Amino acid sequence: MSQSSTTSRISQVTRHLSSVAGSAVQAATGTTVDHKLCMIPGPIEFHEDVLAAMATPATSHVDPLFIPVFGESIELLRKVLITQSAQPFVVSGSGTLGWDMMVNVIEKGDNALVCNTGYFGDRFAECLQVYGANVTHLRAAIGDRPTLEQIEQALRANKYKMITITHVDTSTGVLSDIKAIAELTRRVSPDTLVVVDGVCSVGSEEIRFDEWDLDVVITGSQKGLGVPPGLSIVIASQRALNVFQTRQSPIASYFSSWQRWLPVMQAYEARKPSYFATPAVQLIYALNASLRHITAEPIEVRFQKHAKASQDFKQFITDLGLKQLAVSPKGAANGMTAVYYPRGVTGPELVQSMAKKGVQIAGGLHEQIASQYFRVGHMGISITEPGRKHIDKVAEALKASLREQGYIAK
Ligand SMILES: Cc1ncc(COP(=O)(O)O)c(C=O)c1O
């Protein structure tokens, strides 16, 4: 079979697969896939071109056809993060591997200040502690975020190697003001690395890496970037690379070491073959397909579309008489919404009832209140391609499911 007929067969299959929401479909493997519209805060729905990329034939990771695709993906990531000089790392793994990659800049005994807005702040801190960091948490009430005054006080009280900020904590839907925190950190403690967990924000929230003078942004493939899970993506500033290059102690990790990955990234970008550990070829094809879509329009337009869709969805939630976790609109994510169940409505029933209607949403995750709320993702093609009517489907299913449980909207 020629390459083009293979491609066209694959796109037919994937188009068919992805066009059917809420019904059982026959996948290319012959297994039955029950596809519900996936409206959790990641993984999100994938574009047909992304699905087609995942179904491409076996390809060597040093094939002359693959190398430029990897190289271009690295360049396109810079466009998405709005940076000229930062270094992207694209490695097989999930978002969590990005936390582990902080082993490259953290040394035993270093202080880390964690701006904690939920579950993922706790987990990131746990990871840093594995590598010997002394962690200080700055916490806020659930749904809120530490204030700039608290952060300034903490930065003045102690010398920190890094400050970490979960841009959007997926457990609460709280959005942190990374621009203001980065500005403050540069003013008060210029050498402290500003490390952003952008797993639930890259692709859906405004990030201006160079202008805001960030040092590290960590993400994964499966949320705002619209690619299946399996890629860990980390973008590091020259300042962060310098800290890595001048560190005193050896890096206590084999797979996560930038010593091994930096030459590989540089080689692919220079369109040269390289090898440390086999890259996930099909995922990188998928990443490339998605990044091409994302960068086809100005990134500002993408931010605006997510912000507008989020405002509309949040207004719909308020009009239903429901309350969000995020205590202020400014501190609420644009790519997801976390909502308390109203009185009389219970979590498992609501999520199951939505699933029966072909829409997958997520239950709560914050350990203290997990059974009290649900979460909806609104990122990627569900927002940029409104013709797909994904949000309308969520809204209809939610209204009907609440009604079934006896909840009458105010
Ligand atoms: C904010 C945030 N950080 C980190 C992670 C961990 O990423 P992964 O599950 O891809 O390892 C997640 C996962 O949802 C997340 O939402």
Characterise the protein shown here:
The protein is an alpha/beta fold. The chain has a domain of 228 residues: Type I PLP-dependent aspartate aminotransferase-like (Major domain) (Aspartate Aminotransferase, domain 2, 3-Layer(aba) Sandwich), CATH 3.40.640. The protein is built from 14 helices and 16 strands. Strands 4-12-11-10-7-5-6 form a seven-stranded mixed beta sheet, sandwiched between helices. A hairpin with a 5-residue loop joins strand 1 and strand 2. Helix 2 runs antiparallel to helix 10. The longest helix is centred in the last third of the chain and has 21 residues. The protein is globular. The N terminus is likely disordered. Bound molecules: pyridoxal-5'-phosphate.
Average pLDDT confidence is: 93
Number of H/I helices: 14
The biggest sheet, with number of strands, parallel, antiparallel or mixed sense and barrel status, is:
7 strands, mixed
Radius of gyration using CA atoms only:
21 Å
Low-confidence stretches: 1-28
Question: What molecules are bound to this protein?
Answer: pyridoxal-5'-phosphate
CATH architecture descriptor name of the domain at 67-294: 3-Layer(aba) Sandwich
Structural class by helix and strand composition: alpha/beta
Percent range for helical residues? 25-40%
Kindly identify the CATH topology of the domain at 67-294: Aspartate Aminotransferase, domain 2
Instruction: Indicate the multimeric state.
Output: single chain
> Mind telling me the CATH class of the domain at 67-294?
Alpha Beta
Q: Which of globular, elongated, flat, extended, rod-shaped describes the shape? A: globular
The rounded distance between the terminal residues' Cα atoms is: 60 Å
How much of the residues is beta strand, in percent? Answer: 15-25%
Strand neighbour order, sheet with most strands: 4-12-11-10-7-5-6
Number of strands: 16
SSE series: HEEEHHEHEHEHEEEHEEEHHHHEHEEEHH
Name the CATH homologous superfamily of the domain at 67-294: Type I PLP-dependent aspartate aminotransferase-like (Major domain)
Modified residues (N6-(pyridoxal phosphate)lysine): 223
Enzyme class: transferase
Family: Belongs to the class-V pyridoxal-phosphate-dependent aminotransferase family.
Organism: Mortierella isabellina (Filamentous fungus)
